[in-house]
Structure formats: structure tokens, C-alpha cells
Specification:
The protein is α+β, with helices and mostly antiparallel strands and 173 residues long. Helices cover 14% and strands 31% of the residues.
């Protein structure tokens, strides 16, 4: 299966909303620097095309469930997901007239992998890389990573920014 990046995805004519499923795949921290907070965060797998990076993901097909779409991404990466991958964040990107369609993105936990895990993936116009938290272009990934590492409720986001609500951001018990 070919790696998917938003820039090489065939889009249906005039969709009212694109629903995406992205996987957050982490590379464990090696030699964390005790006094460097950013050094404590794992790196995140990104798919790169034409200098633009995003998490590995797919557009949800009509009638397809979110977990099934996540398994398609995992298959393309050659990883195995748990039966029900954990939801880490939901991010809505409103439509911009004439420029972009509305996007609803579900970010699920893709687990962790060693640094060299994706060295042998086929590279058809795209590449993969491990990105540090400070280099993530999609803010929703930072919130998703925070959800995973701090065991807080999944992030509900609009344009990458948290939507306040009762009971949000409390640690899970």
C-alpha cells in the first residue's frame, strides 16, 4: 500500500467535509536531558512531501469506521494496532471559501516504534521522518501527544486550539 499524504490524495468533487484519520506514532526518548523539557518528549513520525509534513493518515471512505481507516494507515506503515486504538484528539479545520474544504481529523494512538522501523518503506513521492515536538507543523499533534503521555482526556480542538468544556483536561483515574 502507498503512503498517503494530503498533497497526493485524490479528492472527490466538492466534498462538504473531509474526514481524516491520522496515527500518532512515537519514537521512544533516548538519553533524555533532565533539565530540557523538550528533550523529554518523544519524536513523532511524519510523512513528508515537497517539504510539507503531516502525520500518516487517510481520508475515511464512505461507510468506513474510524478504526478501519486507522488499520489502513497501520497496514501502509507495516505496524499492528490494538483492536481498538485510543482516540487522542479530534481537530476541526473550518472551510476557507475557495481555498480549502472543512476537515475533521481524528488522531489515534499508533504506538511507539524504534528509530529505524520505517527505513525500508517504499518511497513513492513521499518520505518519512521523526520530528521533534517543536517542529510539528500540525498543532493538534502536540495536543494528541500530550493526551497520550499525560493520560488526560482526548483533546477536542478547532484549528488546533483546545475547545474549553466542563471536565476537560482532568487526569484519567
Amino acid at each position: 500500500m502507498k503512503l498517503v499524504h494530503p498533497m497526493n490524495t485524490v479528492k472527490p468533487a466538492n466534498p462538504p467535509r473531509e474526514v481524516w484519520v491520522f496515527l500518532l506514532v512515537r519514537c521512544p526518548v533516548e538519553n533524555p536531558k533532565y533539565f530540557a523539557p523538550l528533550g523529554m518528549w518523544p519524536r513523532v513520525l511524519q510523512v513528508v512531501r515537497d517539504g510539507w509534513s503531516c502525520p500518516p493518515g487517510v481520508i475515511v471512505r464512505p461507510g468506513e469506521s474510524i478504526p478501519d481507516a486507522a488499520r489502513r494507515v497501520a497496514d501502509a506503515l507495516g505496524i499492528t494496532l490494538p483492536k481498538e486504538p485510543a482516540l487522542l484528539a479530534v481537530d476541526q479545520q473550518p472551510a476557507i471559501d475557495g481555498e480549502q474544504d472543512e476537515e475533521l481529523a481524528f488522531i489515534l494512538d499508533g504506538g511507539s516504534a524504534p528509530e529505524d522501523a520505517f527505513a525500508n518503506l517504499p518511497r513513492d513521492e513521499v518520505d518519512v521522518e521523526w520530528s521533534a515536538v517543536e517542529n510539528l507543523e500540525r498543532v493538534a499533534l502536540v495536543h494528541a501527544l500530550r493526551t497520550r503521555l499525560l493520560a488526560v482526556e482526548p483533546a477536542l480542538l478547532v484549528e488546533g486550539m483546545p475547545v474549553p468544556g466542563p471536565g476537560r483536561d482532568k487526569r484519567k483515574r
